[in-house]
UniProtKB/TrEMBL annotation:
It comes from Streptomyces actuosus. Residues 34-94 form the HTH tetR-type domain. SUPFAM superfamilies: Homeodomain-like. The lineage of its organism: Bacteria, Bacillati, Actinomycetota, Actinomycetes, Kitasatosporales. Gene3D superfamilies: Tetracycline Repressor, domain 2. Signal peptide: none annotated. InterPro entries: Homeodomain-like_sf, HTH-type_TetR-like_transc_reg, HTH_TetR. The keyword Heme does not apply. Keywords: DNA-binding, Transcription, Transcription regulation. Residues 1-30 are annotated as: Disordered. This is TetR/AcrR family transcriptional regulator. Pfam families: TetR_N (PF00440).
Length: 221
């Protein structure tokens, strides 16, 4: 999953079948395509959440969206494209949320790396709670072929970004390990939030984890 970041937009969605970048179409056609894609993604999330990725059927996704199966293939190329588009959407929203939080904190004059890191982590965790249905789907083991490798690649990039935010020297093994542990704490907490019974419980977890991050973020000595 995504993490504490300073800028959004990896461009991966634009590489998906029927990607979500600029279409070059007239405004009306582009808007219509956006409505179709939204309906397909919403229906895909429902079916994936209910049946899992493996057992989800394209016919059911198309029926729930009210969009013909042919249009589904045109926009996303199939089930894998839908899943990856949902993943990209989740990542981009989390990036946007954390980047906006960091910008606001800096505008307030906050420049302490740990304070910024924890503020970004809080924003990320709150986003994980707000988007918990999609988050639960994306952390599961039932995804398309090759998705685990993509997720590991993203996790490594997440650690590097957190290291820059915390101003940790990545050439030192101890620093890399510390940032990796912090990143793992955030990811684990995000998974727990998906199973919370209600918002008060989720807020309690977010507060607890942010306290843990403050303690663990302090450099040794």
């Amino acid at each position: 999953m995504s993490g504490v970041v300073e800028s959004a937009g990896s461009g991966a969605a634009r590489r998906l079948p029927g990607g979500q970048g600029a279409t070059g179409l007239p405004d009306g056609r582009a808007g219509q395509n956006g409505t179709v894609r939204r309906a397909l993604l919403d229906a895909a999330l429902e079916v994936f959440a209910e049946r899992g990725y493996t057992d989800a059927g394209l016919t059911e996704i198309a029926a729930r969206s009210g969009i013909p199966v042919g249009s589904l293939f045109q926009h996303y190329g199939g089930k894998r494209g839908l899943y990856l588009a949902l993943w990209e959407e989740f990542r981009e929203e989390q990036e946007r949320r954390t980047a906006a939080t960091l910008a606001a904190e800096r505008d307030r004059g906050v420049d302490d790396p740990i304070a910024l890191f924890v503020a970004g982590a809080r924003a990320y965790l709150e986003g994980a709670w707000d988007n918990r249905r999609l988050g639960r789907l994306l952390v599961g083991d039932d995804g398309p072929s090759g998705f685990d490798a993509l997720r590991r690649q993203w996790d490594r990039a997440w650690v590097r970004r957190n290291a820059r935010l915390l101003k940790v020297d990545e050439r030192r093994r101890a620093g890399r390990v510390r940032v990796s542990v912090l990143t793992t704490v955030i990811g684990g907490a995000a998974r727990e939030l998906g199973d919370c019974a209600d918002e008060p419980e989720a807020r309690e977890i977010v507060d607890e984890v942010c306290g843990i991050l403050i303690h663990l973020s302090a450099p040794p000595g």
